[in-house]
Amino acid sequence: MPLRVKLLRTFGLVAAVMVAGFAFTQISNYYFPTTGEKKLQQENSQIQYDYALLQEEMEKLKIQMKEIEDRDNDIYRTIFEANPIPDSARQKMIDKKKEASMVARLSNDELNESLIKQISQLQARLQTQKKSFNTLETLIKNKEALLAATPAIQPVSNRDLNRIASGFGTRIDPVYKTMKFHAGLDFAAPQGTPIYATANGVVSFSGNAGNGFGNHVIIDHGFNYETLYGHMVRVKARAGQRVMRGEVIGWVGSTGKSTGPHLHYEVHKSGQKLDPIYFFYNDLTPEQFDRILKLASAGNQTFD
Fold first, then answer.
1. How confident is the model over 23-66, as pLDDT tens digits?
2. Cα separations in angstroms, 150 against 186, 208, 269, 281
3. Could you tell me the residue range of the domain that residue 84 belongs to?
4. pTM, to two decimals
5. Domain CATH for 280
């Protein structure tokens, strides 16, 4: 047999053996993986499982975040009538680019660790934010109650602003003709003129205590606010009664230490007597308030 034929046969045999060996190796690796390959397969399976858990957790957090966003919008609409754009939204695209660059450099283990850390931080932020919103909701409710309990209207009808006879501060006493501190406002009005509660509250006193106020009413509004209405000809509100702003509690008179029909009105906060003139913001325009402020500041004689 020629040498050329022998060489070709030998080469063919070697090639066939190599192909068969390669095929056998591939089949063997597929059906009978090595220890290292088994470990890699297990790690990949664990990574896929971890990702599935992380994805599930992220979906839960997204739902919670949506709930918080809705509450956030509702609160802002109530207070500001607008939806503010948080700073985090302005950084959104920049953060996305940074995140993509970071993820590309991380191994599977590093990526898992990074995601777990981010989720942990997000969970902590969610809990803190929920507490913050719960506190804010409580403050809003208390704010509504505070506004209702704050003396914010004039205690008698005074559209023409001509009924303020004497203001808060040092004034001439009508009986002793000496300078004396006047702790309220005197509203001159015909006897029988209705007197209104200036805020919601509970009547803490109703009657005549012999202290110079004659027939008078004291209302506890809560939030450390209290108002006093003196010299009534007749009292309507009774001790323990709950009254609302604008409700009639009695009628103007001249009982007690008084020189003529009028209402003596005081505002107290935490036991301190305040100038009532600064609480008439619910029923006065800025121009009317400026005028009534000038009338109350006149250094004239009081009615009591």
1. 656 565 565 566 666 677 677 777 767 767 777 777 777 777 66
2. 20, 25, 10, 11
3. 33-149
4. 0.58
5. 2.70.70.10
